[in-house]
Write a structure and sequence with these properties.
The protein is globular and about 50 Å long. A seven-stranded mixed β-sheet has the order 3-2-1-4-5-7-6. The chain has eleven helices and seven strands. It has a domain of about 170 residues: Rossmann fold (3-Layer(aba) Sandwich). Helix 2 crosses helix 9 and helix 9 packs antiparallel against helix 11. It is α/β, with parallel strands linked by helices. Helix 5 links the parallel strand 2 and strand 3.
């Protein structure tokens, strides 16, 4: 397991409290495009604490969440009762072949954008099944989001990200999937000081910092909103659909 990924294990509570949900129209687009309904199965891969898992359950489809980190799974089980939750990796889900009508990956595909992961996703999807890649992206044109980016940039290192574009290269080169549409939306998250600190603390490369670097950084982040105030954080949400070949 990459050392950066272990940061999510440390920050599961901050992740659940601090990360935004997904826009209603984004979830509706996934549900409609995949025709999710009772009798269908969707696998939420690298499900984390179940942010998207919970939304998918509204479709009435069978929702299977696969998450390798124990702390994340524990939080997921609390937050998404009714979902089936399994310990598994993108490259080895442990699920039966052709058992999913759709697979979703939210905020995570940049961590395992490899042919090995795509081979496993292809294996568990039914013929012509759909893969959805979803990201909430911070709108850094917003003053607070921009300042968060400035303060955290020195610590990013080699951590994978949506912005790196590596995942696009993999999806452009693979013969396993073909593009099947995309959807773009926006969402705003209102947070108080604790919520803002949790949002930054939930980032893997921040959670992995030693206390003498992490704690002063989070204190500075908290000053962006103040003890009694709140701040609105804008995000753009990008969703890409791919059909199994």
């Amino acid at each position: 397991m990459r050392v950066e990924v272990r940061g999510f294990q440390k920050a599961s509570h901050a992740y659940d409290r601090g990360r935004p949900s997904y826009p209603v129209d984004t979830v509706d687009w996934v549900v409609a495009t995949a025709q999710l309904a009772p009798g269908k199965t969707v696998v939420d891969l690298a499900a984390g604490t179940g942010k998207l898992t919970r939304d998918l359950m509204r479709s009435g489809a069978r929702v299977v969440a696969v998450e390798p980190l124990g702390e994340m799974r524990a939080r997921l089980l609390e937050r998404a009762p009714g979902a089936e939750v399994y310990d598994g990796l993108a490259e080895d889900t442990g699920l039966a072949g052709e058992s999913a009508d759709a697979v979703t990956v939210a905020q995570a595909f940049h961590w395992f954008s490899t042919e090995e992961a795509l081979a496993e996703i292809q294996r568990i999807l039914v013929p012509s099944g759909l893969l959805f890649l979803v990201w909430n992206r911070r709108d850094v044109s917003d003053p607070v989001q921009g300042e968060i980016g400035r303060l955290t940039a020195p610590f990013i290192g080699s951590a994978p990200s949506y912005a790196s574009g590596w995942w696009r290269d993999v999806m452009g080169e693979t013969r396993r999937f073909e593009p099947a549409g995309e959807h773009h939306s926006r969402i705003e998250q209102v947070v108080d000081q604790e919520g803002l600190v949790d949002r930054v603390a939930s980032t893997s490369y921040i959670a992995n910092l030693p206390d003498d670097q992490r704690l002063p950084l989070l204190e500075e982040i908290g000053r962006l909103v103040g003890v009694e105030g709140t701040v609105t954080l804008p995000y753009s949400t990008a969703t890409y659909a791919y059909r199994r070949r």
